[in-house]
TrEMBL record:
UniProt key word Metal-binding: yes
Family: Belongs to the methylamine corrinoid protein family.
Domain B12-binding N-terminal: 1-85
Name of the protein described by the UniProt record: Cobalamin B12-binding domain protein
PROSITE patterns referenced in this protein's UniProt entry, alphabetically: B12_BINDING, B12_BINDING_NTER
InterPro entries in the cross-refs: Cbl-bd_cap, Cobalamin-bd, Cobalamin-bd_sf, Met_Synthase/Corrinoid, Meth_synthase_dom
PANTHER family in the record: METHIONINE SYNTHASE
GO biological process: homocysteine metabolic process; tetrahydrofolate metabolic process
Native organism: Clostridium carboxidivorans P7
Length: 208
């Protein structure tokens, strides 16, 4: 973890963030380690927002800085062949956060999964349609807002009511989603980050 990068991200010091990301990349620091520092900085941004030290403009700025940093980081590994099957992912309806979802999509793709990214603010029927069409072994639902936990719960229940739960494992993730929230939503498991998501999905599909 780069303390300098965490602090610069938290302080929204764009120049330092970009410089440090370039420096870490030049030292061959793994992309996901750089992302982990940026993510920790984003947690602090969120805390400051909650304490009203930051406002919506700072949240927007944080997303811009994060995206610029991601562009410098570039690819997150070789794009493997899609040998591990289909992974459908989307951000639940009423939620437009997509930075974490996009990281999970990229890392899953580079780990040999065919990723169908439905986007953000996705209604239940779109998830169901996608499961019927692509027959994924694993579905990922991203949720960054506690006010949307019930939406995820409703969506997972509807997937079950449609008779699609037996063949599909459901992973949930996003900043505030802990194990208790995952259980409340009816998910199979909670993915804390992209690496964990890959590990769980490989286990679900039976590959090492
Ligand atoms: C950037 C940001 C925004 C940006 C989002 C831009 C974008 N394109 O995504 C903007 C400005 C749009 C925004 C808006 C809002 N936000 Co906001 N936002 C954030 C912030 C600071 C960072 C989120 C982020 O990108 N983190 C970095 C990524 C890499 O981390 P991540 O998303 O957690 O993803 C990782 C893991 O969780 C996991 N993961 C993620 N998704 C998935 C999915 C699956 C399937 C799996 C397995 C794993 C997984 O893997 C990822 C990689 O490691 C968070 C603070 C926080 N602590 O998260 C608040 C935060 C989520 N936002 C918050 C709020 C309140 C809002 C607004 C309601 C503000 C407002 N008043 O309008 C709106 C809501 C808009 C909406 N309807 O969705 C609150 C939510 C509080 C709560 N209790 O629900 C937070 C927690 C801030 C806070 N502490 O108050 N936000």
């Amino acid at each position: 973890m780069s303390k300098k990068l965490v602090e610069a991200m938290a302080d929204l010091d764009e120049d330092v963030v970009l410089e440090e990301v370039k420096a870490l990349k030049a030292q061959a620091t793994p992309a996901l380690d750089i992302i982990a520092s940026l993510q920790e900085g984003m947690e602090i941004v969120g805390d400051r927002f909650e304490k009203k030290e930051y406002f919506l403009s700072e949240l927007i700025m944080s997303a811009e800085v994060f995206n610029e940093a991601s562009e410098i980081i570039g690819g997150m590994g070789e794009t493997g062949k899609s040998k591990n099957g289909v992974f459908v992912i989307g951000t639940i309806y009423d939620d437009i956060h997509d930075i974490g979802k996009n990281i999970v999509s990229t890392v899953m793709r580079s780990s040999g999964f065919e990723v169908i990214d439905l986007g953000v603010d996705i209604p239940t029927d779109k998830f169901i349609e996608a499961i019927k069409q692509y027959k994924p072994k694993v579905v990922g639902i991203s949720c960054l807002l506690t006010t949307c936990f019930d939406n995820v719960k409703e969506c997972i229940k509807a997937i079950g009511d449609a008779g699609l739960r037996e063949s599909t494992k459901i992973l949930v993730g996003g900043g505030p989603v802990n194990d208790a929230a995952g259980e409340y939503m009816g998910a199979d498991i909670v993915g804390k980050n992209a690496q964990q998501t890959v590990k769980y999905c490989k286990k679900f599909v039976g590959v090492k």
